[in-house]
Write a structure and sequence with these properties.
The complex is a heterodimer. Chain A is about 35% helix and about 25% strand. Chain A has 9 helices and 12 strands. In chain A, a hairpin with a 2-residue loop joins strand 4 and strand 5 (about 65). Chain B is mainly α. Chain B is built from 14 helices and 2 strands. Chain B has helices at about 5-30, 35-45, 50-85, 95-110, 120-135, 145-170, 175-185, 190-210, 215-220, 225-230, 235-255, 260-275, 275-300, 310-335; strands at about 140, 145. In chain B, a hairpin with a 2-residue loop joins strand 1 (about 140) and strand 2 (about 145). The chains are: A alpha/beta, B mainly alpha. Chains A and B meet through helix 2 and helix 3 of A and helix 9, helix 10 and helix 14 of B.
């Protein structure tokens, strides 16, 4: 099968220091891939490069074999939806208005939303279970509610690929697991390719097909959770001691932080 | 509230009716009260000479139309700047653009130049330069700091005011009155030719800005979201900022510095109709006109037979409004 995302010899720097160095990997259509690694290892930067917000210093990113530089922003937005870390809002806005913005890449300059757009936005809100606060102001939503609204906005884009930057940040454990399940369902039922940065190694292990482990701007390892979530890898990459065994309920690696 | 064509039509129609009513009332009120019967006769062509006729047609009407256009233009500038800079307190006066445009115009007068359109050109240069300086000075890591941009604007404004005061003190008497009024907005010299120029500029700029109304919804959240939703963010932003500079330059070179309109009007319209720019832009355009006609009528009547510069009226209303918005913002930032 042809890859949907292909990254070749990708390097990037904000200033003089390289943040990403000679990164190469491929992602297949319909995969659920997580990116883990310590703070400052280049995870968020990698995501921003994948949707063209940042331009590479060296190397090329291909989307279904077309370099993303050759794809217009608008066409890119029809294929890739991004859920980045939560923005700070300045103006009143209802949850529904925010979700509806996901239809923007499909609309003409002076257009008003068509019936189809209302249906798609409504469906996205139903999937993320946010219909109840459709008309509520975003300032009144909790972190978990807002995160689900942001995911609904991404779904309204009808993307082939979703890129997420720590979608479980700010969420309590119930909402963490719900968001992950939702992503898994979108992945399985609709074939949306998912690339998500996770801080929680266990969530990455339980939900991903493959995991990219990053360290100091390079890929330290890439593979199924069973292969890369090992004590040796994590001790080395994060520089702290962990205990790894198998979660008996799902048969995937489980990481326990070691105390004293 | 998601904009629909129906809502757009209703809001535009409703505000337009109020606009016409306020226009008529503004014509009737003033140092000399015009009876409605006289106005009606002028309107139907039965009265075409005499005192009432010249007051209405030659003095008040061009001035009131100018007020409406200036109000509409400044409100549109406010809406666009607030969204692009993600700053609810941004408007041409607060960020120093109006001051920059005024200094440009005054330089043009002082240099004794007389080329057609020169005053506007100097004014545009002043506004654009100020915008550039304020944006560069307030740029911080990860975008524009909301507080810094306001502080920079205030300081730049203080400098311009000092410059204008310096000019006033060192200038001959006949120029003094013109410049002094400029400092707080002057609509008294409005002529039909300028009404024509400004309405054309406003019509064209508004058309161009309205094309981007959906983008303004998105850019008001953040630029990254703009990229994610397929907007050519840099291009859109610069086109819009240049249009704002043009509008500011025209209003200031024709009517002086009038502050806070671009703050009050957009926020009232937000409260009434929500934040969708497809509604917010036309609503602010029309209501900006209504607001300014009322402010100008107040300026003409409060201390009649003398009159106030209209900018004094808008500042009296605007400054407390600014503080109210600032405190509301603070509460939100803490959350």
């Amino acid at each position: 099968m042809d890859s949907i995302i292909k990254v070749r010899d990708l390097s990037f720097a904000y200033t003089d220091e390289l943040v990403l160095e000679e990164i190469s990997f491929e992602i297949l259509p319909g995969e659920f891939v997580s990116v883990i690694g310590p703070n400052g290892s280049g995870k968020t930067t990698l995501l921003k490069l994948l949707y063209g917000y940042l331009s590479p210093l060296k190397g090329t990113i291909y989307l279904s074999n077309t370099p993303i530089k050759k794809i217009t922003r608008r066409d890119l937005a029809k294929r890739i939806a991004v859920v980045s870390q939560m923005p700070r809002f300045h103006f009143e806005l209802t949850a529904f208005e925010l979700v509806m913005m996901g239809r923007s890449p499909y609309m003409g300059l002076l257009a008003f939303e068509a019936k189809e757009d209302f249906e798609i936005a409504g469906e996205a809100m139903a999937l993320t279970d946010v219909v109840d606060f459709k008309e509520r102001n975003i300032f009144s939503l909790s972190g978990g509610e807002l995160q689900r609204v942001l995911i609904a906005r991404a779904l309204a884009q009808k993307p082939q690929i979703m890129l997420l930057d720590e979608p479980t940040r700010y969420l309590d454990i119930k909402h963490q697991i719900n968001v992950c399940r939702l992503l898994k369902r979108m992945n399985k039922d609709r074939g949306i390719t998912i690339v998500s940065v996770f801080h929680d190694i266990n969530l990455a292990s339980y939900f991903s097909d493959r995991i990219i482990v990053m360290k100091e701007g390079r890929i330290h390892g890439i593979g199924p959770p069973g292969e890369v979530i090992t004590k040796e890898t994590l001790d080395l990459v994060y520089g702290c001691h962990v205990f790894v065994d198998e979660n008996p309920l799902i048969g995937r690696p489980r990481v326990t932080l070691v105390g004293e | 509230m998601i904009a629909t064509r129906r809502k757009l039509a209703l809001i535009t129609l409703g505000l337009s009716i109020i606009f016409v009513l306020v226009l008529v009332i503004s014509i009737l009120l003033g140092t000399a009260q015009i009876p409605f019967s006289d106005f009606y006769d002028i309107l139907t062509g039965r009265l075409s000479h005499g005192a009432a006729y010249s007051i209405v047609v030659q003095i008040r009407l061009p001035r009131i139309l100018m007020a409406a256009l200036v109000g509409g233009a400044l409100s549109i500038c406010g809406v666009v700047m607030q969204s692009i800079l993600r700053n609810p307190l941004a408007e041409p006066f607060v960020l120093g653009l109006s001051g920059g445009a005024a200094v440009g115009s005054i330089l043009f007068i002082l240099l004794g130049l007389s080329m057609a359109g020169g005053s506007f050109f100097f004014s545009f240069a002043g506004a654009t330069l100020t915008l550039f300086v304020v944006l560069v000075l307030s740029k911080s890591k990860g975008g524009f700091s909301t507080t810094r941009i306001i502080l920079t604007g205030v300081i730049v404004n203080a400098f311009f005011t000092a410059f204008i005061m310096f000019v006033i003190v060192t200038t001959s008497d006949e120029l003094l009155h013109a410049i002094l009024f400029w400092l707080y907005g002057d609509l008294s010299g409005a002529a039909y030719v300028n009404v024509g120029i400004l309405s054309m500029v406003l019509f064209l700029s508004f058309g161009a800005i309205y094309m981007f109304s959906r983008y303004l919804n998105i850019l008001g959240i953040n630029e990254e979201l703009g990229y994610q939703l397929g907007i050519e963010v840099e291009r859109v932003k610069y086109v819009l900022l240049i249009l704002v500079s043009i509008l500011t330059a025209f209003t200031v070179s024709l009517s002086g510095i009038i502050g806070f309109v671009g703050l009050i009007v957009p926020h009232l319209m937000r409260m009434a109709f929500g934040g969708d720019h497809r509604l917010l832009l036309p609503a602010s355009l029309i209501f900006g006109g209504i607001f300014m006609m009322l402010a100008d009528t107040a300026a003409r009547t409060i201390i009649s037979p003398s009159e106030l510069p209209v900018g004094v009226v808008t500042a009296f209303l605007g400054a407390p409004f600014f503080l109210m918005l600032m405190f509301r913002e603070n509460r939100r930032w803490i959350q």
